[in-house]
What we know:
Blueprint: H1 3-12, E1 17-23, E2 33-36, E3 51-54, E4 61-66, E5 69-72, E6 78-80, E7 85-89, E8 94-98, H2 109-113, E9 119-125, E10 131-136, H3 141-147, E11 153-155, E12 158-164, E13 167-169, H4 172-185, E14 189-190, E15 192-194, E16 200-202, H5 208-216, E17 232-238, E18 249-254, H6 261-265, H7 267-274, E19 276-277, E20 285-289, E21 304-308, E22 310-311, E23 316-317, E24 323-327, E25 333-338, H8 339-347, E26 352-365, E27 368-375, E28 378-383, H9 387-396, E29 400-401, E30 404-408, E31 418-420, E32 424-428, E33 438-443
Parallel strand pairs: 5-10, 17-26
Antiparallel strand pairs: 1-9, 1-12, 2-8, 3-4, 4-7, 5-6, 7-8, 9-10, 11-12, 12-13, 14-27, 15-16, 18-32, 19-20, 20-30, 21-24, 22-23, 24-25, 26-27, 26-28, 28-33, 29-32, 30-31
Amino acid sequence: MNLKQLLKIFSDKTCQKIYVKKLSANDNSKNQIYFGGSFDILNILPSSEIITDTDGIRKRESFKSKLDFYWFDEDGRSSKAPNSQLILYPDYPEVRFSGFLLGCKNAPRDLLIERIDNRVLFIGVSDERKIYGYVVSPNSEIANEFFALKNIETHGVFYVLTVFNNQIQLNSKNILLEELKRIHNLGWIFSKRLTPHLQIVPCENSNCGGFTLEAELNIPSNPRSEPDFLGWEIKNFSVKNFEKINSTVITLMDHSPTHGFFNEQGAEAFIRKYGYNDNRGRESRMNFGGTHRHGIFHSLTSLQLVIVGFDSDNLKIINPNGYIALIDRHDNIAASWSFASFIKHWNTKHANACYVPSKLKKEFFLEDEKRQYSYGNKIILGSYTDVTLLFKQIYLGKIYFDPGIKLELAIEGQRRKGVKVRSSFRTKSGDLSSLYQTNEIINLELI
């Protein structure tokens, strides 16, 4: 089998990106396979929930996460490796791949037990979130063809090959920029959404700027947590002037608390204890909102955001059981988020992120008001993030918790509507550069 045939098997398994690692002698089943010196590998490999674990012998704490991993043979037949997992060691930090042979009948044992330099490991992620692997010897035809490739895109310790329009591409960034330039040149676009059944339908909601952009990129609206376009997470944000894109508030994630009073007693009890009467005087409503930053008590909720178990100077997690929390003046935890949940939530979609500004106009057509969007020529690209960069910005107050939680109270003669919860972490677009190791503002009109 040659390289083209191998990549065809990956493509047939709906893998858009193939991650390739040249294995060292130490990359074997005994020592595990080194996947990098940061947690950003979780950006590209879908995993199960992250748990904390303590090595009983070495007393070393780590994070672990199971993988839905399969080896396949030259005919494309797959064999599940049920004990595959990622182990994240925060004290180094580093991530290793382990358990990839145990319990798998057709695993490539001969190549992964021995200490052999320059074997080549190929990994692809399918649309169904399955992870497929194939490994070749250093003198194979596939390895020789791969070593001859030039100017390949990289991600950490991996080289990256992209499948687009049934062709192997060496750089997904160039494909993305060409698509965004095309969309920018379209001018005003009627608001729309691409359904999961690949049908274009009108969109008249406040978040239709993102849906319209995704529809132009042939991305259906869905709740999937994976990146949107060839490994790039596409995020739209609204501006009034395409030349001023650094002062807009960006929602980075919506992430509900995992522990604390909020989880123990529920959202209604939380808002009754820590919320406040509606500022507009509506007797039927209580709110919990406002900007909560690290180390500052909010004037309405009397809660402050804190981060526990993180060394902000050295960008290291010093306690895998650490957390981010809202605490009151008596140090009671009103709500908290475990580090494990933050790692999972952040790293799932933000390996490579593209922030695209848009403007909105509303006009009447045939007596109906229609939304239209145009997309700016200057876009923000961020690559190679890590949750420790996120924690650092929370510590500095650049990222803040900005919830929107409301309780509709029952009053005589009216039906109670219940509780609505939004748990948003936000920042300004001008501070996005601190979240990525590589940052660019690109003018699409110049490419």
